[in-house]
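Quick one:
INPUT:
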């Protein structure tokens, strides 16, 4: 009689609640994975991608910059994690770190120098990715609409006058 009111047995109702909670957690994890395609990055409300990483054995973080593409932010993160944790770390793009194994094991770097290397890599990748995206958009844009801010080409005018 004393044990009946304080029973810790799992009832079918409690099992159902627990299973609902665990399924909602996996749904939340899937939702996060959709928004965050790579490790160590996140997207700001206005569309920029930022990267940061925690320093080992500290609560502080190293700010790795903000980028226009998620690939650039992920590459900046990969660079930092390579110098912090070595070649056995989990990378977003492991294929870029095959040749640099000896470089990381031979030196101990400060947070500022890690940040500088990561920002350099991220900026280079961001420039390439942005140029590639602009080239793809330019070719599509040419076929869709002309640029109204562009000065007319005199050769095009001569061709138009010759047809009249």
């Amino acid at each position: 009689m004393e044990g009946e009111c304080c029973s810790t047995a799992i009832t079918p109702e409690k099992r159902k609640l627990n299973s609902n909670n665990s399924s909602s957690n996996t749904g939340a994890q899937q939702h996060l994975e959709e928004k965050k395609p790579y490790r160590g990055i996140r997207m700001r409300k206005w569309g920029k991608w930022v990267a940061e990483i925690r320093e080992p054995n500290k609560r502080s973080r190293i700010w790795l910059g903000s980028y226009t593409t998620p690939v650039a932010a992920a590459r900046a993160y990969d660079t930092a994690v390579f110098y912090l944790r070595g070649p056995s770390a989990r990378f977003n793009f492991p294929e870029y770190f095959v040749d640099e194994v000896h470089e990381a094991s031979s030196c101990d770097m400060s947070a500022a120098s890690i940040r500088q290397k990561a920002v350099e890599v991220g900026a280079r990748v961001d420039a390439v990715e942005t140029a590639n995206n602009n080239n793809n958009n330019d070719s599509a844009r040419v076929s869709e609409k002309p640029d109204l801010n562009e000065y007319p080409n005199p050769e095009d005018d001569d061709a138009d006058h010759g047809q009249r």
